[in-house]
């Protein structure tokens, strides 16, 4: 019989109890297992790696020296286990991964050496480091989770008094401007800071169904399966829900047009729409961006007379045109034949917009035009639109609507049949409306906040590290408001990991205005009653610079920001 491999016991032959006993025996007699084989036994020279039994468990299978077991690998931090920390949930990299002792969490020493070797270093250094600035760029994507970290505790966010909570709600409804000092010595004792924290967590939602998670909507079918949805089979109830939703949607647009609402989101099960007031994102007119889109949706918008553009597609086309011009100049400089350079300069490159008859002229020259079946009009149209079809469901399918066309888009979305799912867990459920200010039919909601104190082992000693987790639909103004509070409460030193709702990351695309943007004074005058802090308004009025990406990591050190997108 072949000698047994240490640490390996085929589970399909012996019951689990015997397997455990055999493991104990092997651990106790490991030196004996390595002894020489008995007399007469011919030592086997392995010519290939041992083949793992497919019926055995992973824990029993033999592995090469130095390879960690699955359980050991699970205990390693993501960076040491070969995983990306940005894709790992908070509870696997944070304090929740280790047991709690008397209300204080303990990080694994190896994990904290990676996360807390230097608190002022990002989780993963950016490929192109940005220079420290006093303000980070506007991020128009919706965040699903924020994780702030600091060496100072977040006790000032805990156990708000009833009066502080009520004051925070009142300050939000009245759009009270809170100006904090640069540094607060005792944040826990600052009532003004605690009220401002409660104020920054408030947002408005429609429809509000407490037993359903109304955001995110894209890819949320799994979370909604099995939940009560009495409207899915009741057409009369669906009409009532859509009627109320239309009233709320119209109310939000009227507030936006009156410059009493800075922006709002429409989140359907297929796409998301961001409406922005004039003066924001470097535009002097109302803008709306839709992502992702499909050819069918774009055709329906064209048929309704909605003028829109595809900024990323146009940018790619312009870039390719510039590259082709550069290549032509390079070829001419290299001394190509004169005839070839003349033809390249006079004849345009073939495109999908060429005349259809000219495309098949070579068949007539060969005399086989009657023997070859030409494609029909639909095939020709699809061939011309192949570049547009290829971007469906991708960030490049972002559609930009400006000016009065946004009102036409409003009516289009209210009457669009495909806006609401007809089957599945979201059948009959109207899209979610998210707004930073109150509107007709909107329900006040608050983001969930949780602070955790942890012990980090650094060089044979334990140091305190604190984290603050914010969960919910975090809109751009909320992110900026929270950073202003942390700036004062933590003396300009903290870091944050941001989790983005991916379909909205492309909202950071520059709208590309031909006319100059409004001045800072005009923006503050026109949007003074929109409910945003003046500093937040300054940030959101800047032209987006992140493109189709969003901020993943944000750090402040010495009151200066660095970030990674």
UniProtKB/TrEMBL annotation:
Residues 343-357 have a biased composition (Acidic residues). It is found in: Nucleus. GO terms for cellular component: nucleus. Keywords: Developmental protein, Nucleus. Its main location: nucleus. GO terms for biological process: nuclear DNA replication. Residues 1-80, 319-357 are annotated as: Disordered. InterPro entries: Donson (IPR024861). Belongs to the DONSON family. This is DONS protein. The lineage of its organism: Eukaryota, Metazoa, Chordata, Craniata, Vertebrata.
């Amino acid at each position: 019989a072949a000698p047994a491999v240490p640490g390996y016991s085929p589970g399909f032959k012996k019951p689990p109890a015997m397997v455990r006993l055999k493991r104990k025996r092997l651990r106790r007699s490991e030196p004996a297992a390595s002894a020489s084989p008995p007399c007469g036994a011919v030592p086997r020279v392995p010519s290939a790696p041992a083949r793992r039994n497919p019926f055995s468990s992973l824990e029993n299978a033999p592995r090469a020296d130095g390879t960690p077991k699955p359980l050991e690998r699970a205990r390693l931090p993501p960076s040491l286990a070969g995983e990306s920390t940005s894709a790992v949930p908070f509870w696997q990299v944070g304090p929740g991964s280790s047991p709690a002792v008397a209300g204080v969490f303990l990080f694994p020493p190896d994990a904290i050496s990676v996360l807390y070797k230097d608190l002022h270093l990002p989780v993963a250094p950016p490929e192109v480091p940005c220079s420290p600035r006093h303000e980070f760029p506007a991020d128009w994507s919706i965040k699903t989770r924020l994780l702030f970290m600091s060496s100072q505790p977040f006790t000032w966010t805990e156990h708000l008094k009833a009066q502080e909570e009520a004051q925070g709600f009142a300050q939000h409804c009245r759009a009270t401007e809170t100006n904090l000092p640069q540094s607060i010595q005792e944040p826990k004792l600052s009532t003004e800071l605690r009220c401002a924290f409660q104020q920054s967590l408030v947002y408005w939602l429609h429809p509000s169904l407490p037993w359903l998670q109304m955001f995110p909507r894209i890819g949320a079918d799994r979370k909604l399966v099995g939940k009560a949805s009495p409207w899915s089979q009741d057409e009369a109830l669906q009409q009532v829900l859509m009627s109320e939703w239309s009233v709320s949607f119209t109310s939000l647009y009227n507030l936006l047009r009156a410059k009493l609402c800075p922006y709002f989101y429409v989140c359907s099960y297929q796409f998301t729409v961001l409406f922005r007031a004039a003066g924001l994102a470097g535009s002097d007119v109302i803008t709306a961006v839709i992502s992702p889109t499909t050819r069918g949706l774009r055709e329906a918008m064209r048929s309704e007379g909605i003028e829109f553009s595809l900024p990323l597609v146009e940018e790619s086309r312009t870039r390719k045109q510039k590259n082709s011009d550069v290549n032509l100049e390079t070829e001419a400089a290299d001394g190509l034949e004169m005839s070839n350079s003349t033809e390249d300069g006079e004849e345009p490159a073939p495109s999908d917009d060429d005349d259809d008859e000219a495309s098949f002229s070579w068949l007539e020259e060969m005399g086989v035009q009657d023997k070859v079946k030409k494609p029909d009009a639909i095939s020709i149209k699809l061939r011309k639109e192949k570049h547009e079809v290829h971007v469906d469901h991708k960030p490049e399918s972002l559609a930009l609507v400006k000016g009065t066309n946004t009102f036409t888009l409003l009516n289009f979305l209210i009457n669009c049949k495909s806006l609401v799912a007809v089957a599945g867990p979201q059948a009959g459920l109207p899209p979610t409306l998210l707004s930073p200010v109150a509107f007709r039919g909107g329900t006040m909601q608050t983001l969930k906040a949780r602070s955790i104190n942890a012990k980090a082992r650094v060089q044979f000693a334990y140091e305190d590290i604190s984290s603050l987790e914010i969960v919910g639909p975090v809109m751009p103004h909320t992110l900026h408001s929270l950073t202003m509070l942390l700036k004062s409460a933590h003396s300009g030193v903290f870091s944050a990991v941001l989790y983005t709702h991916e379909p909205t990351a492309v909202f950071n695309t520059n709208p590309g205005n031909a006319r100059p943007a409004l001045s800072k004074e005009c923006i503050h005058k026109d949007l003074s009653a929109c409910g945003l802090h003046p500093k937040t308004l300054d940030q959101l009025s800047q032209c987006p610079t992140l493109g189709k990406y969003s901020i993943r990591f944000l750090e402040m050190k010495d009151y200066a920001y660095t970030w990674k997108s």
